[in-house]
Each structure stands twice: as C-alpha cells, then as structure tokens.
Write a structure and sequence with these properties.
The chain is mainly beta and about 725 residues long. The protein is about 5% helix and about 55% strand. The protein contains six helices and 39 strands. Strand 35 and strand 36 (about 685-690) form a beta hairpin. The radius of gyration is 25 Å and the shape is globular. The relative contact order is 0.14.
Length: about 725
C-alpha cells in the first residue's frame, strides 16, 4: 500500500488539494474542444454561480437518503479525505459511485512495480487496452481496445490533467497520441472511461478515454539509474520542496537505448517537469510545465517474405535511413475550489509541438529508382481552456448532482506535410498545408438518486468545429468547413445489494476527420478528382454491465457492449496515416477482476472478446483489418511495504483478421514479463526480466502491397510485421534523498 502525501501545505491549501488528489473516479476527462466566446463566457458565469450556490441539508450519511450505505454520485471527487490518501492500485470499490461497469481508476501502486518496456505501456493498466510499436521508441504507440486497431488514438481520447494529447490533422495520423513525454515515476494515477456514455468526453472518444494525473509532491526526493541489454540506460530523479506558501516539484528523465535492431536505434530522450501548487483565491492553483525532446533511428515493420528468404533477419531492415525527432513543450495552469460537495475547476494550457518522421512502408513500389521513403512533418501550437463545475442539490425530496463544462481548443498548424525523400534528403513535396482547426464543446450531466437502490445519469454534449485549410501546392484543396454535433447520453444504475450493482448505458458520440480530407478536391499524388469526407462522424453504442464486491478482497466487473460508427478510420500502409472508410459495428464482452488475497498479495485478470465488421458491404468481405478479437492480461503481485516486492505479468493478443475477407490473419502474441526487487531504508533495487520466455512473436502486423528490388512492378501482397524485442534484463538502483 503506497501512501501519497501532499506535504505540509497551509490549511487553506490542504483541504482543497486533498480533494483534488482524491478525484479517483469522477475526475474530469474533458476533451478540450472550443465554443464561441459568448457561449464560453455565459457558461463560465453559470459555473461560477453553481459553485457558489448555498448549501443544502442532506439526509443520509453522505448526502443521500436511504438505508443502503452507498456514496453519493461523484463522491470520490467531493468527499473530504484526510491530508493523506491511500492509493491502492485498481482496488477502489466503485459501487455507489460509478455510472458504468467499464470505468475505474488505477493508482500508483499498480504501475510502481509493473515491468514496462516503454512509457506508453503505462496505459496498459487500463483493462483491455494494449500498446505496441511498429517503429522507433520515439514514436507514438499503436493502441488496441474494444475491437479497434486505434492506430495512435483515432477513437480513444487521452488527456493529462485536462490537457488533450490526441493531435487532430496530424502528419502521421489523425488523432495521433504520443505519451513518451511522461515520466512514469511522476504519474499519480490513471482514470479511464469506456464507451460513448460519458458527457465529459468529446472527440476521439468513441471507444473511451483516459485521464492521467501527475504528482504534486513527494514524501522524499529520489534518484534512480537503470541499465540493461543493448545499451539501455535511464536516469530519473525528482524533488519537492516548500517554496513560500506553496510546494514545488521538479523532475527529470534521460534515456538512451540502441535496441536489438541491426540498425542501432541510438535513442536520445530527455524529459522534464516543474510544478508549483499553492493556495490562492479560496482554492488551489497549480502551475505545470512539461518538456520533452527525442531523437532516434527506426526499424519499421518489415515484409515477412524478406525474413523467410533469409534476405534479412527478424531485427533487420529494408531502409537503414529511417528515424525521427520530436519535441513537446507545454504549460498548464489549473485552479480548483471544492466546498461541501460543490466544485469549480478552471484550466488553460499551451503546447508547442513538432515531429519529423522518416518512414518507408512500401520500399520501391511507387518509386523503383529512389525508393518510397517519406518524411512526415508536423509543427503546431495548441492553446485551449476549459471549465468544469459541480453542485449537489435537492429537488422533490431527491438528491441530485449537476455537472457542467465548457472546453475550447485551437490548433494552429503552421506545417503538416508529406515529402518524398531518399536517405533523409527531400526530393519532392507530395502535400504541404497550413491548417487552423478550432473546436468548442459544452456539456451538462445530471446524476439523480430516485431510490436507495436506483439512480440515473443523463447528459448532453454539443461540439462545434471550424477547419481552415491552405494547401501550398493545389489551390483547389484549400478551403473552410464548419460542423456541429449533439450527443445525448444516459445510464441507469440499480443496486442489487450492498455488494452488487447493475448498469444499463447508451449514448451517441463522434470522431472528427482530418481537416484536409474535408476540403480535398484533387488527389495530390495522382491528380485525379478526390471526394471529400464529412467533418464529423457519428458513433452510437450501448452497454449492459455488472459490478461486484462480494468480499472485502475481491472486485469484479463484466460488461456487454455494442458500438457502431458511420465511418471507420483505417491505417493506410502506403502513407502511414489514416483515412475514412465504410461504416462499422462492434460488440463484445469484458470481464475484469482484482483480488487482494492478502494485504501484500494481489491477483488480477482481465479478459476481453470482441467482434468487428463493416456494414453495407458484401458478406465475406466485411472484416475490419487489425481489429483485435481477444485480449487476456493478468498478473500476480507481492508488495510488502517492509521490503520485498515482485510481480509476474502475462499479456496475450489473440489472432485477428489482416484483410477484409479474413483469408490472412495475424499470429497471436503472448508475452510474460517479471520484476522483483527490495526496499531497504531509503534505497531500492530491482531487476526486470522482459519477455521471460524469449518468444519470437510479433508486436504489430499488417497486410498490404510492397516491392523489393527485382520484384514485379505491381508489387507483392504480404504480411509486414514488427517483432517483439527479445528477452532482456534491466537492473534499477534507486535512493531517496
């Protein structure tokens, strides 16, 4: 059990800071998307009025009448914990709190001892979510959830403390999500929601979303160093200190890694964090700065035929000049006030982002002489703001919680471009654009307890977008588009007993399309006429769920879900990005379990099955390529606060279709990772063994046409894969200062 403390802040800060850190379940997973200024101003005034509403008396022990001892809606956001909060991984009891069976929170205890290969695998603490890689470690991970190959986040929203991470109209793929800037040791918890049932989630959230919360203070400063095979080295440290009336936190990470690849990856990563938290204006003010720089060489996915013929081995390459560099500098300011169940949160952020990514997916298919190497470029500044307010009230003898929020996001993309290159030298320009993408959203939800066993949550979200595209090469592809969409949601929750709760949820959602696709008239590669896509694409879904806490040590949930999209976003091999396709539908079941056998021993098991198919296409040609069909993940963890800790984890990705007729399928992948260590005093040492069985599996698999030297001009259809990394040992030595 890990104890996380805010430190010795003044009492004016401490109460509110504890409330902020205790937002384990109903944290605002707000996707920042804009509205017109007048709407924002009016909504902010309304939120302020709600936050300052007079108090009302409450009947029950936590504000709701009735005999069942359950917490009020959003209680983990508003219930006053002490100044220290015990974080117990995924072990929180959400009966009486959650709106669906497929939402939850993961505390630091869960991922503190978890062995991870890359920073993105932190998100694998979300049950059923898988992170893989098809290129270098500086690039965003491939994501899989609920029958989606999400590419880099096309239908899964990610934010860090209310600052959105998904990047629309991105050079490598719409909705691109890169969390390599996170320092795992400074992550406090991860909240997650699945499905289209949550009004606080907007764009990119058809399959759900996750909200990452970072630490505000440390019980002691620390420094640690890790080393391992293939020149893996990593240094990370952090310190917190009282500065004036508040508390400051600074942290850093430096990482280098060559990997098992024939082409040394030569990763050069640096990350930094600075944060100051102080009581101000009757609430808590947090100022957060994050910095990230990375540069790497890359071995992209390779054709299976080249490996089977002996032309290259599993860790070889076709083009040895691939790689990239990226940076992300961001600043986030938040102010939060919570009193007697009411809360108001204001936030504003700014991001400076850049990516240069050299890739070659088809080798010599389009350009037999110079090769098909591409440079994908993206430079942008993102600014945004938002507000969320909550107020409990009583009406007709019933208790209710009203939540409302507004968000504003503006992407000023000075360059989003695709170039044909050779050996990282630019040969010609395929497309180069300047884009301004403005988005705004507003939502409201009402959670009501009508009976000791029955409550409801109803909500409505409205989003509006404006795209302004300027094509530097083809004037006909320039233009503007605007669109708006409304998304109602609802959940019915019934308490079967003090230890069981049933859920029925339904709602509408959406994802936006790449702004360039909404104004396109001419194909930049062929010069042929091109058909534009709808700016916004509707999704709709439903879920039937059950949550159980039959004993003090067991938490279990099961969810049957359905999701339909009017248009699918699919990965395209020859461009390395995403494009709109036919409509689709998905359905499946998830079963999640955590069992704390002893205070020190925890066992968890998550199982997910799903089916995905296109609609209105010929039977037998309706499989969605890359849609995972089953995932099994679990582990056994021993975490004794007096010293020893150990964990063994399994992750299984089942086989799935690589082509619409299901004639080619991806191989299943099963990996086992382990970590064991010991704490003695302020020091800590651990050994992580990754890919324990040294399985020669595949991290990611695609099926498309490519051409190697000497092959037919039309190319060869083949499986292209990126292998998992072989068994390796990593040793960590750390000390608290």
């Amino acid at each position: 059990m890990i104890r996380s403390s805010i430190g010795k802040l003044p009492s004016s800060v401490l109460d509110d800071a504890a409330l902020v850190r205790s937002a384990a379940v109903r944290s605002a997973l707000v996707r920042s998307v804009p509205v017109h200024s007048a709407v924002c101003l009016a909504a902010l005034v309304l939120l302020g009025m709600l936050s300052g509403s007079p108090a009302h008396a409450h009947d029950g022990p936590h504000g709701f009448p009735g005999a069942i001892p359950v917490l009020p809606p959003d209680s983990l956001k508003t219930y006053e914990f002490s100044d220290t909060l015990e974080v117990q991984g995924r072990f929180d009891d959400l009966i009486g709190v959650a709106a669906t069976a497929s939402e939850g929170t993961v505390g630091r205890e869960d991922f503190e001892v978890r062995p991870i290969l890359r920073e993105g695998e932190l998100l694998e603490t979300v049950p059923g979510l898988i992170q893989t890689q098809h290129s270098g470690d500086g690039k965003g991970n491939q994501m899989f959830l609920r029958g989606f190959n999400l590419d880099h986040g096309t239908d899964f929203a990610t934010d860090v403390e209310g600052m959105p991470i998904n990047l629309p109209t991105h050079g490598h793929g719409h909705g691109y999500t890169d969390v390599n800037f996170l320092i795992p040791e400074l992550v406090e918890r991860i909240d997650y929601r699945k499905g289209v049932f949550h009004p606080e989630l907007g764009d990119f959230a058809s399959s759900g979303g996750t909200h990452v919360v970072l630490r505000r203070s440390l019980p002691r400063s620390f420094f640690q160093f890790e080393g391992g095979k293939d020149r893996f080295r990593r240094a990370v440290g952090a310190a917190s200190q009282h500065i004036g009336p508040g508390i400051g936190l600074v942290g850093f990470e430096f990482k280098g890694y060559d990997g098992p690849w024939d082409l040394e990856q030569d990763l050069k990563k640096s990350s930094g964090l600075a944060r100051y938290t102080v009581g101000w204006g009757g609430g808590t003010l947090s100022l957060l700065a994050l910095g990230y720089d990375n540069e790497w060489n890359a071995t992209d996915q390779i054709p299976l035929r080249a490996v089977e013929s002996g032309q290259i081995d599993r860790f070889g390459n076709i083009d040895p000049t691939l790689g990239g560099r990226s940076h992300r500098y961001s600043f986030l300011g938040t102010w939060h006030r919570a009193r007697e169940g009411r809360s108001l949160e204001l936030r504003a952020y700014a991001v400076d982002y850049s990516l240069r990514l050299y890739s070659n997916f088809t080798y010599y298919l389009e350009h037999p002489d110079d090769g098909d190497q591409l440079l994908q470029a993206d430079d942008r500044v993102v600014v945004g703001a938002g507000a969320t307010g909550k107020v409990p009230f009583r009406w007709r003898g019933r208790s209710h919680l009203l939540e409302a929020g507004v968000t504003s996001r503006n992407d000023f993309i000075s360059k989003v471009a695709l170039y044909h290159t050779k050996d990282r030298v630019r040969l010609d320009t395929v497309r180069e654009d300047e884009v301004v993408e403005l988005a705004g959203g507003a939502y409201a939800s009402l959670t009501s307890r009508w009976h000791p066993r029955f409550r409801t949550q109803v909500g409505l979200r409205v989003d509006a977008f404006h795209f302004d595209v300027e094509d530097a090469l083809i004037e006909e592809n320039s233009g503007t588009q605007s669109a708006a969409i409304a998304s109602p949601k609802a959940s019915l929750i019934y308490g079967l007993s003090n230890h069981a709760e049933a859920y029925l949820s339904g709602g509408l959602g959406f994802h936006s399309n790449d702004a360039r696709g909404t104004t396109i008239r001419v194909d930049p590669a062929s010069g042929d006429p091109a058909e534009s896509v709808d700016p916004l694409v509707r999704s709709k879904g439903g879920e039937l769920g059950l949550r159980l806490s039959p004993t003090e040590g067991l938490r279990s949930s099961v969810a049957l879900w359905y999701l339909a999209l009017d248009s699918e976003l699919l990965y395209v091999g020859d461009g390395g990005g995403t494009e709109a396709s036919d409509g689709s539908e998905r359905y499946g079941v998830e079963w999640n379990n955590v069992y704390r056998v002893l205070d020190e021993l925890t066992v968890d098991l998550d199982v997910a099955f799903s089916h995905a198919n296109f609609v209105d296409v010929a039977e037998g040609e309706d499989h969605v390529p890359g849609a995972l069909e089953n995932v099994v993940a679990g582990g056994v963890t021993w975490n004794d606060p007096t010293g020893l800790f150990a964990t063994v984890r399994l992750r299984h990705l089942g086989a799935y279709a690589l082509i619409e007729d299901d004639s080619v399928r991806a191989d299943a992948t099963t990996l086992i990772n382990a970590n064991v260590g010991f704490r003695f005093g302020s020091a800590r040492i651990s050994c992580a063994l990754l890919n324990v069985l040294d399985d020669e599996a595949r991290d990611i698999q695609y099926y498309y046409e490519s051409r190697l030297p000497g092959e037919p001009e039309e190319g060869v259809s083949d499986v292209h894969f990126h292998p998992v990394e072989p068994r390796q040992l990593r040793v960590m030595i750390g000390v608290g200062l």
